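Quick one, tokens below:
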């Protein structure tokens, strides 16, 4: 048996005992050490979910015959097919046949989870348990977006709209890749304060709208932020769209129309970038530690989600042990 969270919706999270996961063909069982909360988890938190969520998972491999048995690993979310054109080109995150761990497959708000063996990314010994989950959405997603932009722009002045976990991750990645000065638009005082402590200028939307930036990282997923991002990107600059939501409503105006710029959408990251992302984490370790601002066991998960939903936490962890 094991304990796992069930998201019932309207902020209710029930911890229940159920049968321990069994590894299917090509899978291994992971004993969860940490699962980071993500803004996208607020959907299951509010609406309920048929499976256990949690997609920023780190654990210890429990598969005696496997080369990683007893080793720590994080889980690459897309359970990719390995055969389609995207998978064969190394962009397994773009596999359209992939089920996502913590969404269409059970995730990490549990003591254990069965995951595809091919989705394991081994955690180097010098990266502590609490920072390892940052390799996924926080560093992986942000760094891939910035690398896509570096195909078309050189490091220079940058703006980030939204200093939540993704935006702050992007801030640290931009710093690590030589961008600056870095400005941030963020209405929340706590998040803005953390951004400032990382060396960013905190601007009002109006002030940011008067300036132009080589790179804009849109990490709010809100229409107002997208509008600002499209206006504030410099001529010949790049806008990386990382924030997600279901619908866009953009007002095309002169500031957008009369300008050449690159609009880049990127999703997650290729596994081949993982080693370089570990180096980014090492180089900014003290700052990344600030992002992990709370942890709790399974029984405290509902209370932690309430704080997270209120914007009081950045990248808190559930640690079942
Ligand atoms: Zn996430
Ligand atoms: Zn595929």
């Amino acid at each position: 048996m094991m304990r796992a969270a069930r998201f019932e919706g309207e902020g209710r999270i029930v911890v229940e005992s159920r049968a321990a996961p069994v590894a299917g063909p090509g899978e291994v069982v992971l004993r969860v050490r940490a699962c980071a909360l993500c803004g996208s988890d607020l959907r299951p938190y509010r609406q309920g979910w048929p499976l256990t969520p949690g997609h920023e998972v780190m654990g210890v491999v429990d598969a005696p015959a496997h080369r990683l048995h007893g080793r720590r690993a994080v889980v690459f979310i897309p359970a990719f097919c390995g055969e389609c054109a995207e998978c064969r080109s190394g962009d397994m995150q773009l596999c359209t046949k992939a089920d996502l761990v913590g969404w269409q497959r059970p995730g990490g708000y549990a003591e254990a989870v069965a995951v595809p063996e091919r989705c394991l990314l081994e955690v180097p010994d010098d990266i502590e348990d609490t920072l390892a989950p940052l390799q996924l959405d926080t560093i992986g997603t942000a760094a891939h977006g910035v690398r896509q932009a570096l195909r078309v722009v050189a490091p220079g002045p940058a703006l980030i709209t939204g200093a939540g976990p993704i935006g702050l991750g992007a801030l640290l990645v931009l710093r690590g890749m030589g961008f600056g000065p870095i400005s941030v638009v963020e209405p929340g005082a706590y998040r803005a304060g953390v951004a400032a402590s990382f060396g960013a200028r905190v601007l009002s939307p109006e002030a940011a709208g008067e300036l132009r930036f080589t790179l804009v990282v849109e990490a709010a997923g809100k229409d107002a932020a997208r509008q600002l991002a499209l206006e504030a990107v410099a001529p010949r600059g790049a806008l990386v769209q990382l924030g997600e939501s279901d619908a866009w409503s953009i007002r095309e105006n002169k500031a957008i129309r009369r300008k050449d710029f690159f609009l880049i959408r990127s999703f997650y990251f290729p596994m081949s970038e993982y080693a370089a992302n570990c180096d980014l984490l090492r180089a900014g370790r003290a700052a990344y530690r600030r992002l992990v601002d709370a942890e709790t066991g399974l029984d405290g998960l509902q209370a932690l989600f309430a704080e997270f939903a209120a914007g009081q936490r950045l990248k808190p962890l559930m640690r079942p042990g």
